[in-house]
């Protein structure tokens, strides 16, 4: 999901929904789980894909979306309700799902920084235009509204409230986009990559009748994968054993090759194990998944990480790990140290970025430069970032550093995460990393 900052409140503890039942597809013998395609915003498989855009234009667009998304992790003193962390127009990864009985296909943004899953619903009192038909609950035999006495209708969750004995919601995003409707339950069907569809009954979601803001016509809503109780991963926590993982293919692969895509795994298929795995504690702050970053090494010099004085994130979890932000954001003072150390270590011609998006850039004839080893040191986990994760070609003959300064929020973006299998264990409260060729995973 511009650079500005939203309020953080501690989320309730993980809640397991007793009415939920799920039969998981087994793609392998004795393995209960499923794997779905995770389609990058600029992939040829995405409805957003513009074949006339160059790879450099696609990367520049991703930079702007990254800046836009960062603003929604920050404070906004003018909005009183709990804030979500995305704007629907700027999500990075899409999931194709089906809702209802019989199922209706939709594209929705998959987001680890958001809890509520919602889609536009008839009757639409005031809705944005979408290309696909709008979901009509009256045509589904499995649709039900959720009553005020249901445990899901927790008034302590700031966007939920009771109206006419039905649980309602009002989700306001950081750019004042919003969705308003009924909290309902429905059967969701996912097209698993193992060849069998996975149908999940009684998923709580928002049936939005009033939806306005920066939403675009190729999406129908959001799939919330965050840490709050209404998140899908928490609703099916027992069945997937609190585990999900993803493997993001390199940017150039996602934007040029339609035969490969990133994947997201749930349940046993999400376990990250084997030689080379490192794990670090997961600290959940409201919706967000945060890690404790202790330092970053450039060559043989280690720079202790210092969170911003203005940061809204508690110090024990000082950086958000987010699949929807492209660049990695760090505090300004810390960035100055990073940049100086890199400049002292790189023997190449420094060059200004004409777009002024990136702070540290170099001339390069072949799109690469020699850079020192860069290692991010999380608690109990050292993660070496290959040069392809830290320097990218942003224009012909120009490569730039993919970490940028920010006054208030720190985010580990998806360029730094590419070609790692990254597993979230919400039971053990840890995140695991395994260097992986994600084009083959």
- How would you describe the shape? elongated
> What summary fits the major beta sheet?
6 strands, mixed, barrel
| Order of neighbouring strands in the sheet with most strands | 2-3-10-4-9-8
CA-based gyration radius: 21 Å
Annotation field: number of helices: 6
The count of strands amounts to 28
Share of residues in strands: 25-35%
Average per-residue pLDDT, rounded, comes to 79
- The percent of residues in helical segments reads 10-25%
Low-pLDDT stretches are: 1-31, 75-91
Terminal CA distance:
26 Å
Relevant terms:
441 residues, mainly beta, 6-stranded mixed barrel, 4-stranded mixed sheet, 28 strands, 11% helix, disordered N terminus, PEPTIDASE_A1, aspartic-type endopeptidase activity, protease
Description of the molecule:
- Residues 1-31 and 75-91 have low confidence and may be disordered.
- The protein is mostly beta strands and 441 residues long.
- Helix content is 11%, strand content 34%.
- The strands form five sheets. The chain has a six-stranded mixed β-barrel with strand order 2-3-10-4-9-8. The chain has a four-stranded mixed beta sheet with strand order 14-15-18-26. A four-stranded antiparallel beta sheet has the order 17-16-21-22.
- It is built from six helices and 28 strands.
- It has helices at 55-70, 232-235, 251-256, 332-345, 387-390, 414-417; strands at residues 33-40, 93-99, 104-111, 118-120, 144-145, 160-163, 166-172, 178-191, 197-212, 221-224, 243-247, 262-267, 278-281, 283-285, 288-291, 293-298, 301-304, 319-321, 328-331, 361-363, 374-378, 381-385, 391-395, 398-401, 403-406, 411-412, 420-425, 430-435.
């Amino acid at each position: 999901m511009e650079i500005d900052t939203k309020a953080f409140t501690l989320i309730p503890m993980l809640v397991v929904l007793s009415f939920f039942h799920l039969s998981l597809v087994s793609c392998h013998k004795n393995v209960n789980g499923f794997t779905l395609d995770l389609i990058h915003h600029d992939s040829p498989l995405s409805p957003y894909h513009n074949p006339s855009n160059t790879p450099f234009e696609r990367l520049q667009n991703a930079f702007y979306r990254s800046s836009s998304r960062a603003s929604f992790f920050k404070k906004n003193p003018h909005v009183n309700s709990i804030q979500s962390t995305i704007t629907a127009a700027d999500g990075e990864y899409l999931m194709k799902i089906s809702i209802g009985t019989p199922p209706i296909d939709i594209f929705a943004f998959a987001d680890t920084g958001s809890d509520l899953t919602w889609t536009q619903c008839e009757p639409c009192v005031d809705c944005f235009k979408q290309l696909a038909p709008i979901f009509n609950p009256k045509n589904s035999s499995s649709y039900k509204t959720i009553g005020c006495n249901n445990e899901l209708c927790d008034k302590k969750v700031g966007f939920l409230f009771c109206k006419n004995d039905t649980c309602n919601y009002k989700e306001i995003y950081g750019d004042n986009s919003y969705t308003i409707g009924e909290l309902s339950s429905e059967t969701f069907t996912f097209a698993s990559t193992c060849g069998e569809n996975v149908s999940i009954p009684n998923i709580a979601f928002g049936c939005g009748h009033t939806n306005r803001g920066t939403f675009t016509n190729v999406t129908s809503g959001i799939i919330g994968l965050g840490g709050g109780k209404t998140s899908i991963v928490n609703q099916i926590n027992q069945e997937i054993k609190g585990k999900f993982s993803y493997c993001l293919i390199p940017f150039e692969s996602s934007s040029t090759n339609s035969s490969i895509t990133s994947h997201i795994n749930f349940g046993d298929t999400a376990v990250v194990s084997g030689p080379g795995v490192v794990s670090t504690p997961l600290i959940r702050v409201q919706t967000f998944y945060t890690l404790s970053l202790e330092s970053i090494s450039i060559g043989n010099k280690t720079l202790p990480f210092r969170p911003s004085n203005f940061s809204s994130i508690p110090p024990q979890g000082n950086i958000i790990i987010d699949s929807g932000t492209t660049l990695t954001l760090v505090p300004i003072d810390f960035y100055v140290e990073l940049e100086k150390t890199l400049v002292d270590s790189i023997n190449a011609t420094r060059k200004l970025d004409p777009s002024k998006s990136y702070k540290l850039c170099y001339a390069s004839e072949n799109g690469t430069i020699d850079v020192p080893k860069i290692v991010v040191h999380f608690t109990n986990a050292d993660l070496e970032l290959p040069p392809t994760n830290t320097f990218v070609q942003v224009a012909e003959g120009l490569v730039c550093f993919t970490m940028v300064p920010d006054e208030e929020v720190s985010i580990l973006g998806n360029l730094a995460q590419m070609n790692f299998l990254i597993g979230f264990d919400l039971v053990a409260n840890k995140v695991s990393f395994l260097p992986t060729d994600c084009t083959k995973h």
